[in-house]
Amino acid sequence: MEIKISTLRVIECGPLKDVIIDFNDSEKNQPQSVTILAGANGSGKTTTLELIFSLLDLFKFSPEANSDFINNLNIVHILKQTEYAELRLIIDNEICIVFWGEIEHNDKIKNIHGIQRYFDEEGNKKWKIYSKGHIPKKINAFVNNLEKTPLDFPFYPYNEPKNYQIPTILYFPYNRELLNVKGDQVYREQGNYYFNYRYQINRTFKGSFESYLIWLDYSDQELFHIVIQFLNHLNFGGKKFNIRRKDLSVIVTTKDQSQHELSALSSGEQSLLIMLLEIRRRIIPGSIVIIDEIENSLHPEFQYLIAKSLMNLQKEIQFQLLLTTHQHEFVKIFGRNNARILTEF
């Protein structure tokens, strides 16, 4: 399955009063592989990403859910602060709408899913799940099955692709913090595959990024070589990564052949390595990666590196990339035709 975002319609949510944000190529009218939302603080960039992530999360609610499902949304949930929101998706070349609020029924669109607001005979506001079509049904069944039978990271195409029938949505919010690089023990790092996954202040690696690499070196040589090859192709100034088994450490070899430990990398390099590897080991073709404030915690010298690395990864595994930025440099790197300027900055 391939999921792509086409448009977002928003009525009354924070700075977004009544807007349609188009993620399509102006010539082909098809979803772009990269869209970067740019603008000053308060222009609605983060609001846009939060709405997209929250709307996609509605696929977890099935039509058979009990009437108390709305309480599963936190009281400060962004959808509860929104009059209406509608995300138009292209899924396997079919239109699929996921929405929140009062929607006008459209018989021409076969796949619609969302939480519909209505009023009972006494004028009380009520909510119900509205869903039709085979696509929402398939996604909902897969998401619910994951809760019963978790899958490990796919690291496509290493694991069996047929088990990962639905792509993943990865969201890196602006206040993300990825820990740790170095730890005291080597752990078997396990993690579950999710349809909709948000990174917060998250100890992604139970032990550390280093222990994850060491564990792979001993337990799964095939996957270890895939990971090391991926890291070495990132072109971190010619740096290469490998394991020194005698003292169980990850060694970085620089362009001039000098060596140092992984923890000696700058904080920007460490964050970049972890983010890119997390994306690589979780996504399958057809996924969506969302990054708020891509420049967050990055020294200017790494701005081009992360942009280039993400674009190179798209050549290896097809996915849609949505970004926000305050920096003109990222608009230049990704191209003005891929930018949506919400306000001048």
TrEMBL record:
Residues 31-345 form the AAA+ ATPase domain. SUPFAM superfamilies: P-loop containing nucleoside triphosphate hydrolases. PANTHER family: ATP/GTP PHOSPHATASE, ATP_GTP PHOSPHATASE. This is AAA+ ATPase domain-containing protein. GO terms for molecular function: ATP binding; ATP hydrolysis activity. It comes from Candidatus Magnetoglobus multicellularis str. Araruama. Gene3D superfamilies: P-loop containing nucleotide triphosphate hydrolases. SMART domains: AAA (SM00382). It comes from the Bacteria. Pfam families: AAA_21. The lineage of its organism: Bacteria, Pseudomonadati, Thermodesulfobacteriota, Desulfobacteria, Desulfobacterales.
